[in-house]
């Protein structure tokens, strides 16, 4: 049996819109083996409602690789399980896409390189900031010119912890992107470039006290605040409650706070829950440490379970 495990990811980290991403330890897991006819089984509560046929996003990702490699997929059994809540800003679509692509590449005997897989996934997603950490793990800075992605991966400091506030409601990325303006002033552009660069430098150097200032953003968060009740209050108040910095995770509605790993996050949790309750919303607050491995493949397609 072939098993492919692909992590969740948080993109943007403030101003690093479409170019910064961090891999997180929740994962989507695919299990595949040969079968007389193709069968697709999404399992578990989080995948309820996702298609159990060839229109499933994971299988569509597999077909993208088959088409690029000009090789047909054999009939197969595909089980999909996920710990990543859908449409919450935690890279569920990137994990499904990258997992499916890596799985197809394994099934077909690895016709594509990792670089080719990353380029294909970036083209499908439109930007590399979730797919690159989903494939490569760790913290990724990546550009994308519409054809090829150029990633640099490094491991975040051991002292970096992550707190997520994951609301119960969903927000499709397409809707959250539609809320953004198509043009920005020079001042906002300079603000974005400088803050994204400073965020990357803070994470690369371990100068974590710079994060609160570095993670300021004028590019997407102000426009998405209307779609995420409580966002502005959290971004303004989190540092006073122990966060090193805070940002909307990807397209939202999850909000990400960094904290010092090993330190108490009780005050931060109480603050985040208080904002959620004040907005009349429900959700969960989770402490995690970054994923460092990216997509992991185990076993082979030849072995039946
Ligand atoms: N494991 C999966 N199997 C099938 N479809 C999936 C799976 N994971 C995600 N999807 C599809 O992707 C959609 C969510 O993608 P979307 O880009 O809106 O959000 P996200 O990837 O969770 O968040 P973000 O891109 O902001 O991090 C789901 O509604 C579903 O259609
Ligand atoms: N950079 C993307 C991440 C979500 O896919 C966005 O914020 O829209």
TrEMBL record:
The gene is thrB. PROSITE patterns: GHMP_KINASES_ATP. Pathway: Amino-acid biosynthesis; L-threonine biosynthesis; L-threonine from L-aspartate: step 4/5. It holds the Pfam family GHMP_kinases_C. Belongs to the GHMP kinase family. Homoserine kinase subfamily. NCBIfam families: thrB (TIGR00191). Catalyzes the ATP-dependent phosphorylation of L-homoserine to L-homoserine phosphate. ATP binds at residues 85-95. It is found in: Cytoplasm. This is Homoserine kinase. Its main location: cytoplasm. Residues 201-258 form the GHMP kinase C-terminal domain. InterPro entries: GHMP_kinase_C_dom, GHMP_kinase_C_sf, GHMP_kinase_N_dom, GHMP_knse_ATP-bd_CS, Homoserine_kinase, Ribosomal_Su5_D2-typ_SF, Ribsml_uS5_D2-typ_fold_subgr. Residues 56-138 form the GHMP kinase N-terminal domain. GO terms for molecular function: homoserine kinase activity. Its EC number is 2.7.1.39. It catalyses: L-homoserine + ATP = O-phospho-L-homoserine + ADP + H(+). Keywords: Amino-acid biosynthesis, ATP-binding, Cytoplasm, Kinase, Nucleotide-binding, Threonine biosynthesis, Transferase. It comes from Deinococcus lacus. It comes from the Bacteria. It is an enzyme of class 2 (transferase).
């Amino acid at each position: 049996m072939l098993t492919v495990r692909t992590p969740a990811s948080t993109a943007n980290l403030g101003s690093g819109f479409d170019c910064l991403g961090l891999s997180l330890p929740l994962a989507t897991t695919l299990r595949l083996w040969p079968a007389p006819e193709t069968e697709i089984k999404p399992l578990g509560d989080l995948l309820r409602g996702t298609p159990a046929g060839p229109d499933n996003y994971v299988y569509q990702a597999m077909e993208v690789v088959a088409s690029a490699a000009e090789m047909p997929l054999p009939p197969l059994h595909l089980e999909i399980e996920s710990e990543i809540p859908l449409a919450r800003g935690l890279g569920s679509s990137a994990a499904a896409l990258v997992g499916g692509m890596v799985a197809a590449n394994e099934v077909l005997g690895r016709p594509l390189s990792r670089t080719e897989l990353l380029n294909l996934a970036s083209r499908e997603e439109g930007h590399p900031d979730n797919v690159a950490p989903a494939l490569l793990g760790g913290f990724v800075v990546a550009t994308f010119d519409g054809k090829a992605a150029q990633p640099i991966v490094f491991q975040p400091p051991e002292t970096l912890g992550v707190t997520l506030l994951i609301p119960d409601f969903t927000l499709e990325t397409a809707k959250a992107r539609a809320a953004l303006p198509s043009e920005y002033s020079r001042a906002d552009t300079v603000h974005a470039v400088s803050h994204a660069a400073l965020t990357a430098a803070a994470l690369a150097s371990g100068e974590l006290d710079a994060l609160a200032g570095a993670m300021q953003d004028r590019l997407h968060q102000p426009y998405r605040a209307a779609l995420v009740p409580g966002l502005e209050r959290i971004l303004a108040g989190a540092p006073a409650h122990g966060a090193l910095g805070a940002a909307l995770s990807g397209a939202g509605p999850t909000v990400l706070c960094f904290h010092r790993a090993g330190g108490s996050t009780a005050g931060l949790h109480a603050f985040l829950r208080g904002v959620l309750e004040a907005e009349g919303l429900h959700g969960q607050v989770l402490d995690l440490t970054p994923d460092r491995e990216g997509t992991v493949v185990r076993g082979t397609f030849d072995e039946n379970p």
